[in-house]
Amino acid sequence: MTKQSEARERVRDLIEQLSVGDSIPSERQLSQDLGVSRLTVRAALDDLVREGQLIRRRGSGTFVSEPKIAQELTMSSFTDEIRARGMTPGSKTLDLRVVPAGARLGRILHVSPSEGIVVAKRLRLADRDPLAIETLHVRESLIPDLSAKDLENGSFYALLRDRYGIAIVGGQQTIEPTVTNEEESGALGVPLHSPAFLFERLTRSETEVIEFVSSIYRGDRYRLVTELSVRPMLRIADVPIALYGDGFGA
User: Fold this and answer.
1) Quick one: which of 202, 171, 201 has its CA closest to 109?
2) What confidence tens digit (pLDDT) does each residue in 159-190 have?
3) Structural domain of residue 170, as residue ranges?
């Protein structure tokens, strides 16, 4: 084990004895207590900040951060996920406008490039702490008279169901790592180029595509959780083989 990894583990043990919001000793003090250089301590603390266990506040010090929120890969809304973890969800509408779909959104939402699309950008909160920036794209004809205030009062899926009679039944989601740009960093209250997750979700009702959502989630506050299962092995005898034609049966 390297000196840096040993220092990291010893600071992690210290964190377990503290509460959320407690400050940890200074780098100078930790260097003396752990018997390593300040550079080694700083590198160990950098690791723990990236992992989301510590948070630095400029001019104040380094503190124990909130535990990461486990994001299950399901069809539930942000509002339901946060409530399920005993926290209070919230939203602040940063922008709301109607624009022509254009070629890309037209393909995604299966509409004409000239059709009006509501683009709504929201800051998603948990106990008033900013966690994500979410940008919705929905056909204007599906959600007439939508206001910025409507998007701050709860789940958008519940609004679709209760006001517009649209039930979301499924969708497809992709997730990839990224870093925050200047605008995202300012809204989320994190340093420039902080680790983040980019979620892109396409949702549908029984009959059509409803919504395309692009979201930036703070990497220091989220971890992704999914349940795995072992599929039964497929035997060759189970595969239907065409006796004539191009090979395997369609």
Assistant:
1) 202
2) 999 999 999 998 888 888 899 999 999 999 88
3) 69-225
